[in-house]
Amino acid sequence: MNKSIIQDIKENIIVLFWPETCPFCQKVCKEGICTECRERLESLRIREPRCMQCGKQIRSMEKEYCYDCMHTHHYYEQGLSLWNHKAPVNQSIYQFKYHNQRRYGELYSQELVKNFQKEIRRWNPDVIIPVPLHWARRRKRGYNQAQILAENLGRMLCIPVDSKSLARRKKTGPQKKLGHNERKKNLKNAFAVTPAFRPVRKVLLVDDIYTTGNTLDAAAKALKEKGVEKVYFLTISIGQGY
User: In what order do the strands lie in the sheet with 127-130?
Assistant: First the structure.
């Protein structure tokens, strides 16, 4: 019996014995996100005006780019995130990422498609690639949260998903306590394209959080060095600068 079948059985057992709960407050809710959390999330949703590159919300309609993007060279073309990385979004993603709440991935993906399907179709990616974990971290955690998102998005949008062509060859330290320049140094040469890669023109990278963009930049750089022309990204949430 392969691993995917075993995982499906486990998830069905979980649903049978533990009712579905809202991923943001953990109250029982068959609809996914409860009404109260829907209202809270609405205040965290990224709205126009957005930075034309990273998609971060900016204050002035007269500006096209946020401060970070005006002072940083990005290897990706453009990206979008759904919510600001604040409570309860950050707490929910933490559970998804570190406490085996894999089922949250489908709900996040549904929200991403509902909000950004038009933009994704305009980007017209040939393939969706999740930002990979280093093999040691993947083995310890048991799964890659970005891959869960990518597979759900691929199924919903009928876009191929490639989880084998991009590898994290360097086990980087935690990014959250580092400054911008330290983050870039930490991620230098962190990603590599594997022999499994078949050249395509456009790639949609998927990850859980956008902080400074250094992780996505490092992944995009590796892909472009192997012939990819344009790289876009989607994340669940985004931070508010360095």
Answer: 78-84, 230-238, 202-210, 127-130
**Is it the case that residue 200 has pLDDT exceeding 60?**
yes
Angle of helix 214-224 versus helix 180-187 axis, rounded to 10: 40
* Those residues with Cβ within 8 angstroms of residue 230's Cβ, 6 or more apart along the chain or in another chain: 77, 123, 201, 202, 203
Sequence-ordered list of residues with C-beta below 8 angstroms from that of 96, at least 6 positions apart, any chain: 23, 102, 104, 105, 108, 145, 208
SS3 110: helix
Whether omega before 23 lies within 30 degrees of 0, making that bond cis, reads: no
Q: How many CA atoms lie within 13 A of 187 on its CB side?
A: 26
Residue ranges of domains in the chain, CATH in brackets: 12-43 (no CATH), 72-238 (3.40.50)
Distance CA 237, CA 208 (A): 7
Q: Are 110 and 82 in contact (CB under 8 A)?
A: no
Q: Residue 17: pLDDT above 60? A: no
Q: Which residue has the tokens 């002072």?
A: 71
108, 24 in Cβ contact below 8 A? no
Task: Specify the pTM.
Answer: 0.88
Closest CA to 237 of 208, 215, 202: 208
Q: Could you tell me how far CA 75 lies from the centroid of its own chain?
A: 17
Q: Which pair of tokens denotes residue 135? A: 């093999």
